[in-house]
């Protein structure tokens, strides 16, 4: 716990292992919005409505507020410690190696499981698109055992397609990413425009049919907080911006704009989409749909726009998988550079410039999860890892404010101890609102992590010999 990397060293690239600075704030906003606007809003709107009813609106607001507090802490630390590794690196510099390992191990869980969740969400829209086009695919190949199928083949195929692109050295240019982000936003705007005239105030009554606190009802965990605990998945992604800190031209300005700008923009979009969805159709009618937004538009007699939503999801959601797989390589890069993981995990192929071996391993794990498990369970497990990271970042910000109050900060979070405390308490409340099975899986994962650290990372750490 006493081993800490120097903050001053974090601002300098190390021993030829630094990353090239090529990004500015428009790229980061596009990256943030591209990572945030994905499976969450396209598919979890229905899952959230199933758990909270019309109060899914309130669930979006609560999850967004918690993320906003965490985003302020991220913005302060990302500009103060502009180095690859995100929450792992901040924890290493402030809280020590032991806690940093747990955070990094949790981030590995987050990024891996997010890729799987997005793949399952993509599969739901791809399946609906195929059916609408008259292409009959057997159900056993479109869903895992939980839904009466054998395997979710589309989810597996998209994982390997993205992994293939990464292994071939394909990189998203800022222009292509911006175009795909625009496509997603245009589709959501079209949904709001068409759904708004069908708005029925009666669809919001009763507003909170399952109550506020998370509880089990009819074999399901329901309540506003139960919905918020999974809808939280729809908001994070801004932390992917912080993984690009070492590749940002002007970290002080660009990271602040990228993190906070993407959060504000996406919160406004989500609230508008949720209001339009619930207002246009009783939540019971779209709650269990794999493509809720397209389902609502088909019900409103707008099949062409529903097809547009499906096309946007099919084309654009894989970019989220790509962004998170890319982000995971940055986490591995940082942990391997610090000696906590084998150095070869941070190496890239000399010919393609990509970590081929690690990409294959990641794709194998992601495809197994995506092929066999339901979206809700996957998203909840990803949320557990993210909540851990958010708590660590918020605590790190407050500790550093006490430990080094005079250290120059490009961006300062307003009322840091209020914001930090709210973020920690909010994340803890969301964590205890997750199903018990999800919490158990999270602790099992971190138990394995502690064993790996004790057997390898503790002895091999670069700071062990200092």
Describe, in short, the structure shown.
This is Amino acid permease. With 466 residues, this protein is an all-alpha fold. Helix content is 67%, strand content 1%.
Note down, in words, how this protein is organized.
With 466 residues, the protein is an all-alpha fold. It has one domain: Up-down Bundle (Amino acid/polyamine transporter I). It is built from 17 helices and 2 strands. The chain has a two-stranded antiparallel sheet. A hairpin with a 2-residue loop joins strand 1 and strand 2. The longest helix is centred in the N-terminal third of the chain and has 36 residues. InterPro entries: AA/rel_permease1. It is found in: Membrane. One of its GO terms (cellular component) is membrane.
Strands in their spatial order, largest beta sheet? 1-2
Q: Could you name the CATH class?
A: Mainly Alpha
**Under CATH, the topology is which?**
Amino acid/polyamine transporter I
CATH architecture: Up-down Bundle
**Range of helix content:** 55-70%
Topology:
Layout: H1 7-10, H2 25-36, H3 39-52, H4 56-80, H5 87-94, H6 97-132, H7 153-167, H8 174-195, E1 215-217, E2 220-222, H9 224-231, H10 238-242, H11 251-280, H12 292-299, H13 303-337, H14 356-372, H15 375-403, H16 416-432, H17 436-460
Antiparallel strand pairs: 1-2
Notable traits:
single chain; 466 residues; mainly alpha; Amino acid/polyamine transporter I; two-stranded antiparallel ribbon; 17 helices; globular; AA/rel_permease1
């Amino acid at each position: 716990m006493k081993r800490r990397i120097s903050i001053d060293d974090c601002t300098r690239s190390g021993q030829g292992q630094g990353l090239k600075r090529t990004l500015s704030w428009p790229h980061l906003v596009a990256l943030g919005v591209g990572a945030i606007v994905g499976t969450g809003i396209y598919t979890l709107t229905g899952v959230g409505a199933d758990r909270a009813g019309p109060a899914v609106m309130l669930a979006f607001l609560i999850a967004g507020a918690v993320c906003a507090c965490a985003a302020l802490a991220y913005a302060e630390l990302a500009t103060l410690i502009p180095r690859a590794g995100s929450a792992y690196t901040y924890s290493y510099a402030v809280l020590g190696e032991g806690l940093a390992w747990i955070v990094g191990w949790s981030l590995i869980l987050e990024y891996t499981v997010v890729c799987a969740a997005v793949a399952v969400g993509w599969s739901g829209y791809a399946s609906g698109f195929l059916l609408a086009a008259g292409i009959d695919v057997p159900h056993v190949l479109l869903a895992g055992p939980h839904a009466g199928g054998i395997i979710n083949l589309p989810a597996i195929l998209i994982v390997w397609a993205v992994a293939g692109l990464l292994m071939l050295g394909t990189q998203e240019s800022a222009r292509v990413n911006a175009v795909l982000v625009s496509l997603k936003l245009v589709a959501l705007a079209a949904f709001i425009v068409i759904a708004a005239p069908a708005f029925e105030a009666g669809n919001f009554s009763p507003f909170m049919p399952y109550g506020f606190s998370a509880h089990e009802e009819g074999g399901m965990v329901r309540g506003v907080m139960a919905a918020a605990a999974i809808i939280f998945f729809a908001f994070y992604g801004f932390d992917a911006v912080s993984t690009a800190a070492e590749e940002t031209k002007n970290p002080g300005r660009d990271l602040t704009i990228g993190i906070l700008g993407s959060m504000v923009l996406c919160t406004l979009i989500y609230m508008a989409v949720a209001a339009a969805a619930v207002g246009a159709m009783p939540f019971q009618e779209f709650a269990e749909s794999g493509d809720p937004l397209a389902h609502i538009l088909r019900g409103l007699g707008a099949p062409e726009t529903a097809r547009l939503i499906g096309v946007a999801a099919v084309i654009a959601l894989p970019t989220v998988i790509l962004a998170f797989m890319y982000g995971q390589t940055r986490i591995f890069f940082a942990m391997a550079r610090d000696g906590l993981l084998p150095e070869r995990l941070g190496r890239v192929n000399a010919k393609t410039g990509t970590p081929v071996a690690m990409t294959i391993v990641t794709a194998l794990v992601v495809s197994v999860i995506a092929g066999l498990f339901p979206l809700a369970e996957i998203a909840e497990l990803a949320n557990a890892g993210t909540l851990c990271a958010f708590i660590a970042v918020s605590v790190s910000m407050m500790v550093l404010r006490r430990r080094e109050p005079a250290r120059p900060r490009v961006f300062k979070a307003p009322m840091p101890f209020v914001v930090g405390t709210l973020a920690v308490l909010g994340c803890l409340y969301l964590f205890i609102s997750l199903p018990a099975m999800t919490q158990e899986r999270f602790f099992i994962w971190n138990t394995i992590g502690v064993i790996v650290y004790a057997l390898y990372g503790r002895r091999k750490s670069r700071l062990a010999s200092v």
